[in-house]
Structure formats: C-alpha cells, structure tokens
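Q: Given only this backbone (205 positions), what sequence would you predict?
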C-alpha cells in the first residue's frame, strides 16, 4: 500500500510504499489486547505489602489460660482479631509480570500499526526537523498537519526538534527502538518519518 508523504510545512513530499505484512493486515483486537495486558502487568511495581503474623511487633505469649475464663481462646496479641494485630491474608510484595512470546509481541505491533493505517491515523513525514528551538513555531507547524494529540516516531531525533517538542502537552516523542502497542494506542495520531518506517520494516519483516 502507498502513503502520502508530507514535510513540516504540510506540503506534498511524494509517496512511500508501506509493507502490507506490517501496515495492511486485518487488525485483531484479541492480539492487541494481549500485548497491552502484558505491558501493563510488567510495569506494575508490586511493592504493596502489609505485616504478617510473623512480622508484627506484638507479644506472642498466651494472654490467659486456655479454659475456665469464659472468654474466647487466644494465643497471641499479633492475631488479626486485635487492634494493632497483623492483617489476615494481606498483600505481599511480588512481581505481576508474565511471559509473552516474542512472536506474539511482534504480531501485536503489526496489528496495531495496521489498525492505525486502516483508521487513516498515520501521518508520514519526510523528516522531523526544526530550524531552531522554537516551541511556538513547532506547535503552529504541527497544527497545520492536524497533530494535536500525536506520537512522533523517528530513528534518532534532531536536538532542535526534541527540545522544541518537549513542552507540547499532546505530543509524545519515541525512538523506533522503543515502539510499543500501548504508546501507539494512547495517542490519536501516529507520525512516522521515512527513517522510522525503514527501521520498523527492518525490525518486523
């Protein structure tokens, strides 16, 4: 499939051929969902924890004799029943990450790129460059391209462009090596440079 290429002034800069095995698939929501769940599980800290019976700083001596007092049987002040006692079956520190095959991850990336292409939400730029560090000027140029909430992907960002874009709330910058399903879906538009498309096709072909 072919895509129109624009420059930073929203002018026509030719066409580019997109690989149908990456950008022309029929999107499968189940694959995309699997990869997103894997990504979100992997980024969870898992540091939530409460004190267990063995860790609580309360006396472990038996409060009173087992029988004859007319009260319930207790063995330690650290029991969950008492104020200041341990938490019964509370959360403990652990990892939420699970394994997902590399082929499934790559396939999920192909399908989310195809979904963006099918929705007409991919904008191809000749290059992502800025004449100087001018956030207002870059915001105007991106506005001409219809990019208010977009993820810009490039092989290696030019310093002027990167510094100009860092204060734009709706614009995210991502190198090709870090391209992932969650970040692509998180933005309305996906902006790819010629260099980014070449790197993506080398990575996924």
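A: Predicted residues:
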């Amino acid at each position: 499939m072919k895509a129109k290429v624009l420059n930073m002034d929203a002018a026509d800069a030719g066409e580019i051929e997109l690989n149908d095995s990456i950008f022309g698939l029929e999107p499968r929501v189940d694959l995309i969902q699997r990869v997103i769940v894997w990504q979100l599980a992997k980024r969870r800290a898992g540091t939530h924890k409460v004190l267990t019976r063995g860790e609580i700083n309360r006396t472990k001596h038996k409060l009173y004799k087992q029988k004859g007092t007319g009260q319930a049987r207790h063995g330690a002040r650290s029991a969950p029943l008492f104020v200041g006692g341990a938490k019964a079956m509370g959360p403990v520190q652990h990892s939420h990450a699970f394994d997902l095959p590399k082929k499934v991850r790559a396939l999920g990336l192909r399908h989310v790129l195809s979904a963006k292409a099918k929705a007409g939400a991919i904008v191809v730029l000749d290059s992502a460059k800025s004449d100087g560090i001018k956030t207002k000027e870059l915001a105007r140029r991106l506005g001409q391209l219809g990019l208010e909430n977009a993820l810009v992907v490039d092989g290696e960002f030019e310093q002027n462009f990167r510094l100009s874009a860092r204060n734009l709330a709706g614009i995210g910058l991502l190198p090709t090596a870090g391209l992932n399903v969650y970040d692509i879906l998180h933005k309305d538009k996906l902006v790819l440079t010629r260099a980014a498309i070449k790197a993506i096709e080398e990575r996924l072909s």
